[in-house]
From TrEMBL:
Broad class of where this protein is predominantly found: membrane
GO biological process terms held by the UniProt record: potassium ion transport; proton transmembrane transport
Organism of provenance: Lacticaseibacillus chiayiensis
GO terms, molecular function: antiporter activity; monoatomic cation transmembrane transporter activity
Membrane topology summary: Multi-pass membrane protein
Record's protein name: Cation:proton antiporter
Domain RCK C-terminal: 524-607
Cellular component terms per the entry's GO annotation: membrane
Classification via Pfam families: Na_H_Exchanger, TrkA_C
Spans traversing the lipid bilayer: 57-74, 95-116, 122-144, 156-179, 185-204, 225-251, 271-290, 302-321, 327-351, 363-384
Family classification: Belongs to the monovalent cation:proton antiporter 2 (CPA2) transporter (TC 2.A.37) family.
Record lineage: Bacteria, Bacillati, Bacillota, Bacilli, Lactobacillales
InterPro entries: Cation/H_exchanger_TM, Na+/solute_symporter_sf, NAD(P)-bd_dom_sf, RCK_C, RCK_C_sf
């Protein structure tokens, strides 16, 4: 019977997304659809799926993997101080908006939970508060990715609120369970779980690169490491009296901090959402007993109340988001934040284990969460309107205003580049001041720091003095400028300082070598100069920053018929492109094509998402 039930569940997991794709059902999250299918197949209707034994074990493994993948979605870079984008008053920071916004959710959730106790509908307000503050991070991320908002201020704010909506309720649930359960473990032992996570992170951060170097298809060390982290922290969590899902979430955060490759993330996502997680959602639906729920009027009346609660507890986000975004998008973000399902189900399981929830009450909370999870993304898509384009220009700093750097600065597209030049020569400043954005300053480090010269994406050291450029390169390295291009008129064979700069990532430009390379290219490939000088066609390079293109085969690029890809630069190596070559995040595409297409291609490919 168990094998037949598993076959039915796996068949449903396969057919459900095919059915949704065929009928273009895009507004309903797949997880919600799988719960609804489980309701049809389980206790409430057909009774084909029996959820005991091995099926329950696979379901519990599914929720563990789901929470682990949610932990991997936490983007810690959002918590880092962001550089100023302009002088003068700065718009509200996404982190601050998220903190204030989630605080409003906690306050309103607590108030509504005590209201439920006051009217004698549910007598455990702290537990209800935990439920009302949960947000489905995975569903929120999917909705933001679809709108390409993950790296936009609105998307970052909503993403952080959703992250708080997973982390804070999860910690709250763990403490609540420890205080109200029958465990003999002391609450302070939870610190052991955090300590274990830090130890595992410190230990495996050093060996992870070694794993990547020796990994092969028959070992899949990255996946083995992921499952080791999951079960190590889940086991520790259960031993110290914490909820196992907290261990899984911490394991996901540790794995994320290790900096796994995109291929590793893809394999883990495929394994989770391809097998374990659909079983969990379908079994969750199969466990619901709507017949018993319908027979209990008090539990049945909980459904509209809980659903109202999921929305009311989020209304405090409207004035918070309105502080920076237009009203329509503040409403859209609020509706998306009502989406909850991922953490609600394991939280309800804990509640049943603690004896504070009946099966009927659990079913009412689950159905209300399902309705919220369906309506939240639909309302978000209905209300959202794109804010004014906030495409981040590449900030380029030139140090040395002269006949070499000024023409280049003038020819860089103002739509894509924000250019600033510095010179220490008063006569050069007077000559070029009316032509380009140039500032007069000394090349002392404190003066350049005060002028924000190192606050850039690319710094070009174009002074005619080699010693000056060498000193400036060392300063730029100390300030961690992402790209450093240093000009040297000719390589001095008596010193290895140029090689030392190259070893540290500085791109050394030598005029003589560049001329030799260009002349050789003209001899070997006579059309090179024509391509470079052509006013219509040209050679271009774009970087894959949009995850929509990650994993896509080259032949399936939407603009592949309009360009000719000559090379793919990946991990400091050139790869010969083929039609079935898969693209990775961070790949550099080198191609030729019509210059009128390049802006649209860059907008699609380089928009971070």
């Amino acid at each position: 019977m168990e094998s037949i039930s598993l076959l039915i569940v796996l068949t449903a997991a396969l057919v459900t997304p095919l059915f949704m794709a065929h009928f273009h059902i895009n507004s309903v999250p797949t997880a919600v659809a799988e719960i609804l299918v489980g309701i049809v197949l389980g206790k409430s209707m057909l009774g084909w799926v029996h959820t005991g034994g091995d099926m329950q074990g696979l379901s519990e493994l599914g929720v563990t993997i789901l929470i682990f993948l949610s932990g991997m979605e936490i983007d810690f870079s959002l918590f880092k101080p962001q550089p100023k984008t302009a002088k003068g008053p700065q718009p509200a920071n996404p982190v601050m908006l998220a903190v204030v916004g989630f605080a409003s959710i906690v306050v309103l959730s607590l108030a509504f939970s005590y209201l439920l106790q006051l009217i004698r509908f549910f007598n455990h307000p702290i537990f209800a508060t935990i439920l009302f503050t949960t947000i489905a991070l995975g569903v929120v991320i999917a909705a933001l990715k679809e709108k390409e908002l993950l790296h936009q201020p609105l998307g970052q704010t909503i993403l952080l609120i959703a992250a708080f909506g997973e982390v804070i309720p999860l910690l709250g649930l763990t403490v609540y369970s420890a205080l109200n359960g029958n465990s003999d473990s002391n609450l302070w032992l939870l610190l052991l779980l955090l300590l274990a996570a830090l130890v595992l992170l410190a230990r495996f951060k050093r060996v992870y690169s070694f794993f990547a170097a020796i990994d092969k298809s028959t070992t899949q060390l990255d996946i083995r490491l992921a499952f080791f982290l999951v079960f190590a922290l889940v086991t520790i969590a259960s031993r110290v009296g914490a909820e196992s899902i907290l261990g899984a979430f911490l394991a996901g955060m540790v794995m994320n901090l290790l900096g796994p490759r995109q291929e590793t993330r893809d394999k883990l996502t495929s394994l989770g959402y391809g097998f374990f997680i659909p079983i969990f959602f379908i079994v969750t639906g199969a466990n619901l007993n709507l017949k018993a729920l319908m027979a209990d009027p008090k539990s049945l009346s909980l459904i509209p109340l809980v659903l109202i609660g999921f929305f009311i507890t989020k209304i405090g986000l409207i004035p918070v988001l309105r502080h920076r975004f237009k009203m329509q998008n503040a409403l859209a973000g609020t509706f998306l934040s009502t989406t909850t399902i991922t953490l609600v189900i394991p939280t309800l399981t804990v509640g049943r284990n603690l004896g504070i929830l009946t099966e009927q009450q659990s079913g009412a909370f689950t159905l209300a969460a399902v309705i919220a999870c369906v309506s939240g993304p639909i309302l978000f898509n209905s209300f959202f309107k794109p804010e004014p384009e906030t495409f981040k220009k590449t900030h380029v700093t030139f140090i040395g205003g002269n006949l070499l750097t000024v023409p280049i600065a003038q020819h860089l597209s103002s739509e894509r580049y924000d250019v600033q030049l510095f010179t220490d020569k008063a006569e050069n400043f007077r000559t070029y001041n009316s032509e380009v954005n140039i500032a007069l300053t000394t090349y002392q480090e404190d003066a350049l720091v005060k002028a924000d010269a190192f606050d850039c994406d690319i710094i070009v050291l174009g002074d005619f003095n080699a010693d000056t450029n060498y000193a400036l390169a060392k300063m730029a390295l100390a300030h961690k400028v992402p790209r450093i291009i240093a000009r040297f008129a000719a390589k001095d064979a008596t010193t290895d300082r140029y090689d030392r700069l190259r070893d540290k990532g500085v791109e050394v430009f030598n005029a003589l070598d560049a001329n030799i390379a260009l002349l050789r290219s003209l001899i070997e490939t006579p059309s090179t100069l024509q391509i470079l000088d052509d006013t219509i066609a040209g050679i271009y390079e774009v970087t894959i920053r949009n995850s929509r293109f990650a994993g896509l085969e080259l032949k399936n690029l939407p603009f592949i018929d309009d360009i000719t890809v000559s090379q793919i630069y990946r991990n400091k190596k050139f790869i010969a492109p083929h039609g079935d070559t898969q693209l990775h995040l961070g790949d550099h595409l080198i191609f030729s094509g019509d210059k009128h297409l390049i802006r649209n291609i860059r907008t699609q490919v380089e928009k971070p998402n």
